[in-house]
Fold these 4 entries.
Entry 1:
Amino acid sequence: MAVDLGEARTGLAVCDKEEILAYPLDVIHEKSQKAILSAIKKAAQENNAQRIVVGHPRNMDGSFGERAKKCEYFAEKLRNTLDIDVVLFDERLTTKVASQYLNTANVREKKRKSQIDAAAAVVILEGYLKQIKNKK
């Protein structure tokens, strides 16, 4: 399961049991960290998640800014809330790639805004899955 922490929306994605295909699950429209944690916990339980991958925003030069620190803090909160592995994964350019996917699929501008965070979570999860397969 992947999490993309947007400013006002949090995208969720999951993959199949074989860890081949990732697909969007939901977008959480909450600002409260407690509400977001609760929604992720529920989604993780419903989908029998074995691991949660949290998008870790880096600057283009590879450095970490304020938002990355917030994601690190959030990942730690998830670790303390759930009894499963939580990892951070570089999310540079994932929103741009997700936007290109939605453009290619001819998703209209109005609908794109509501789907971009879940699509970005898919890109994060696909990147993570690819990385762990390459390490094997």
Entry 2:
Amino acid sequence: MSSEEKTPVGIPAMEEAEPPLKKRAPTLYAIIIFKLVKGVLCLALTAIIYSEADNNRPEDYEKFLESPAVKFVMEHLRIHPENKFFTGLAEKIANLTDAKVHRAALGALLLSLFPLTEGIGLLYRVGWAGWLAIGESAFFVPIEVYTLVSRPVFSWFIFLVTVSNVLIVWYLYAFRAVLFHHHHHHPRPPSA
């Protein structure tokens, strides 16, 4: 007696009951990589900011400006370290307290949790992660458009970030049913 004869009518054989594999989605994988890289960069920023909390920031800033590489770049770009921007930056650095630096590190840590959560959730094709990514990307589009319009000089970087966020929102929303379709597995009836 073959295995097909043992299977009751209307119940698929064991091989046929396996869930179908999800289709490949290269654009989704690119979004996942983008989100994970963004999250890891924010984590690195957190570590850098946190490590600066105990340092003498004004002294470090002066050493940075005195380094040969920075002097070389400033000379060739004709930037004077005594100009208004650099003196204002030095004043802001001097006014930083350890508590402010710790708060900035906490903010960077919280900022890293969103893209990391989105990236991991999208990797497993969890529906709520798709909606989180759509919401986060859509949230920043008006801010980026305002920044583009209000700046006196056009920024290609902000333009590319804006276009990327619009494409992420469109793609995840347009293909959400295909990307995050969960197959409901029905329990198998007991074998006879």
Entry 3:
Amino acid sequence: MDESEIVNRLIIPPEEAEKLVAQVGTVYLRECPCRLEVQECPREKWEVCMLFERASAKDRRQAKAISPEEAVRVVRATTERGDIHQVFYFDEDARPFELCNCCTCCCFPLREAKESGDYAEQLHCEYVATTDAELCIGCGLCLDSCFFEARQLEDGALSLIDERCFGCGRCIDSCPESAIRLETQPGRGVPVPSV
């Protein structure tokens, strides 16, 4: 990897993460560098970062090759425990070289963005979480699941701070009324990169 190339990162929904790893061919699974350093997560949750052919040879040597089916299983397992899927790609052609399944306690980019309140470097995808007002009962459970604090409850009505919603989908599973869904809004952000 040429250090002069600009690397972008984009949070994507679980379905897009599954689609990506199913298409790339060989996937290389390695321990998450953030979890390895911070060590807030149990050890069995460290092996979650996936590299693709475009990743540096040095990084791939520190990983083990797995099948696309195994990669999909890893994505599903990390989704179930609330991890956020971040794809990394080079600016010049938007082809991904890594998918990180990030926890919110160890991931440096996610923690830095939240602690500083500066989300400028975190690109938005075209997905946004929308709430069906007729189904929403205002219970507020989705507020706790939103790492970026994009959801707010005011006078029993839910509102969304658009610039803080990255389309990760964590709020969907927390809603007992199935009132939340991810929708694409072309032009809102960056399209999900493909292989």
Entry 4:
Amino acid sequence: MKRFLSIFLAAAMLCAAALPVRAQEPEQAELKTEDVSGYPSITLAGGSHALYLDENGPNQTVAYDPLNVPGMVKEYIPAIVKAILKLDYDSVVDSIVEALQRVFGDIAMDENGESIKDGITCDRQTFRESNIQSDRIFFGFDWRLDPMENAEKLHDFVAHVREKRGGIEKFNFVGTSGSGGVMLAYMKLYGYDDIASLVMNISLHNGLAMFGALATGNVSLGAEALGKIKIDFGAMGLDWQLQPWLRLLYESGLLSVLSKTTKSGIRPWLRPTYERGIIPMLFMMPGYWSFVPQEDYEAAKQYIFREDPEKYAGLIEKLDRYHYEVAEQADELLLEANKRFKVAVRAGYGKPSWPLGDDTGVQGDGMVEAFRAGLGASCAPLNEPFLFWYKQKIDDGHDHISPDRYIDASTCLLPEQTWFTYNLSHKWEISYSGWYEWWLAAENATVFGSEAYPQFSEMTEPGIFVPREAKPQSKALSLLKAGGLGMLKIWRWVLQLPLFWVKWWYQSYV
């Protein structure tokens, strides 16, 4: 009995683990409280939106449209699955490369990070007079380009709007998703004088685990993410109801074993797929490199460019400039911004990332992890809240633990100005039921400044946000649940032990 209790308590302690990011409270500037709603807002587009050839001209054609991708991918799934079952590695590579070329071929870039086809743009409504005269101005850009280059284009656009509207002094900026890095580059290149306020909205400027895994070749079937994600196969025209089965396989540990086995199984065709498809189609685009986490950047360069680094010298120069002059200084840039004008951060949680890598099964909005978008939030594992004895890591006199006990925002770079939304899908961006209008005008623009817009909210249905609430749970039930989950973790670990021994034997004697 004592042995069982020891195992049970050890399992419970495993579930109390979080993602510690910041060891001490960052220096906070005096909060900016002025009403800036009188300035127009410029909302930057996210990433991977549609790109066009001869945009707005008589021969306009779509070069890339994310809405078309699921249908394109669907065509190649049967061939890829059939080739995998036959262990026909050459056919697997051929099918994947063909699919990548079908999706990205028209927007491919060369070894210097320059577009192979001329005339590809994404202005959409950017330069239309109705957009320029609006209070909510939209800025579209070619997301394939280096964020520094897009920051220069944003600076030119700001000057264009000023000229058209008679010299507006400042603007409110919203850097959404992939454009968070563009806003950081803008501040690095041009300072802060143009900015009245800034929202870093579900920003990817800290990267995301999926791209870290993809860029370093550590591709695997993310068992935890796959077991907890909700995949919309209907978007691909597939009537598959796999979620209950995937969850069962994950909890039993079989999905973890499958993940490890698959990771070894794909080795024969992984590098050829990179050299023929992934590298030329994806990693010639500087914009995609801005999604690679800083901690993975050097390893990614070694993996992607290892065949001939000199061949890619022009591209590497661009990548180094952004990563070491902007991304590495992101916190300093934002702290300095916070001394000069209103700054807010928005992030989502409750959803894992796409299951492409071992580290994707953590709190996020379905794409970017909450601890990255939230600038240092400490997060409990998915569906495993902090236990009742957990205390927030930094005691600043305010309660920064979410009602459901999944998020500890005390470790965020700006804990008083960082909002989290449970069940938020990454695609919803800035649609926060009036939050933005309140925040622009608010004199107390913090997470405690309005009962209608607390630090933790929930998206109950698309576009509808309410304060997050959680049902009270007894300490005994909380501990029992945590112990059960912890024992499942131990079981999954034990189930994988034979794979470690097989791998050790193979590497040692074969």
